[in-house]
């Protein structure tokens, strides 16, 4: 266990705190927790690379902490009628498809190398931007409906594209495995 992994665990533990704060309409604190969690993601990655602290645990822990935070915030914002339910379902379903596909492939192939797709990175950035903008709007009374609505649709489209790209990727990998056998 190293400092980068401890920071990832801290981000993982920030998720229920953010959920609790949103449910209790403590939006300023929820916004701060979300922003600090985002900063911690950059910090743990920097520390792991700069100080040669990349570990097998960290390769799983870091993206898991990111997914848990984003999905938790999206589900909570949907359950409190702040984000549209169709978007929350899409975001959660995409992550289930990606994780399920990875687990299935790993089970069949006995190995797994995951390389994030560019569309997935764009999608994650859009998801983070939307959550941060919504929490900021709730926290500080700043309501730019146009920006929020635009980002909702950008997240929706990139989520569909990213999920579809992963389905194609896992399908191609599975087809290649069948040819080898």
Provide a compact summary of the structure.
The chain is mainly α and 181 residues long.
Throw out a few tags for this protein.
181 residues; Four Helix Bundle (Hemerythrin (Met), subunit A); mainly alpha
Shape verdict: globular
Would you tell me the overall average pLDDT? 93
Largest sheet entry:
none
Calculate the terminal CA-CA distance, rounded to whole Å: 39 Å
What is the CATH top level name? Answer: Mainly Alpha
Would you tell me the structural class of the helices and strands?
mainly alpha
Q: What is the annotated CATH architecture?
A: Up-down Bundle
Approximately what portion of the residues adopt beta-strand conformation?
A: under 5%
**Number of β-strand runs:** 0
Helix content: over 70%
The residue ranges in which pLDDT falls below 50 over 5 or more consecutive positions are none
CATH superfamily name? Answer: CDP-alcohol phosphotransferase transmembrane (TM) domain
